[in-house]
Design goal:
The protein is an alpha/beta fold. It is built from 9 helices and 7 strands.
């Protein structure tokens, strides 16, 4: 079997980091090259790409995310430009909805997605081509290592607001759509499993 692990937002990134720490601890570089495992980390914050972070150090090297594992959905996104000219972004029409109401809910966007679900969704949607490109590369890489195998896709995120909870529904829909459009379901078969972490009700539910 071949596996693709996708982390959305900070929580998703932390889960992928834990997998990579374990993988880099148990397998050396030569062994890892043959493993049919792919990683995609989607976030609006690049903080977890810090190779100097000592927590990425393992007995078999530094397991920090590589550039080709990461989908940066904020650096090249201009939210203000989208709201200034919504008709110029026809693919985002369904997500923008009532432009005025969405703008008041989303803006201003501070650090990362600012823990705003709508901001996370808009940022992900405006970078969907970059995400699908990473997905295509990951599928190709694991297929080369495990020819004809079922592809198991695992999506990880938190639901506390922001990138993960904003992008999860579209990530599921777009991933499934791409897999069917490229006949992966017919040729190899695939599964898609979603793991969502619900925030603790502390001090009280809201």
């Amino acid at each position: 079997m071949a596996d693709i692990l996708i982390g959305l937002g900070g929580t998703g990134g932390k889960i992928l980091k834990a997998f990579r720490q374990r993988l880099w601890t148990e397998f050396d570089a030569a062994q890892r090259r043959n493993l049919p495992i792919g990683f995609i980390y989607v976030d609006s914050d690049r903080a977890m790409l810090d190779a100097s972070d000592i927590t990425y150090q393992t007995i078999h090297g530094n397991c920090v995310f590589e550039t080709n594992d990461f989908v940066d959905i904020k650096t090249h996104s201009n939210i203000d430009a989208i709201f200034a000219n919504p008709k110029g972004y026809p693919r985002l029409t369904g997500i923008l909805g009532n432009v005025g109401a969405t703008q008041s809910a989303v803006c201003p966007v501070g650090a990362a997605a600012d823990q705003k679900r709508r901001a996370g969704r808009l940022l992900f949607a405006s970078n969907i081509d970059a995400y699908l490109s990473k997905l295509a590369n990951a599928v190709q890489e694991v297929q080369q290592k495990e020819v004809g195998s079922t592809i198991n896709i695992h999506l990880f995120c938190g639901l506390a607001g922001g990138t993960g909870s904003g992008s999860i529904v579209d990530a599921i829909a777009q991933t499934r759509k791409w897999m069917f459009e490229h006949n992966i379901a017919e040729k190899n078969g695939f599964t898609l499993t979603v793991f969502c972490q619900i925030p603790e009700a502390n001090p009280q539910p809201n």
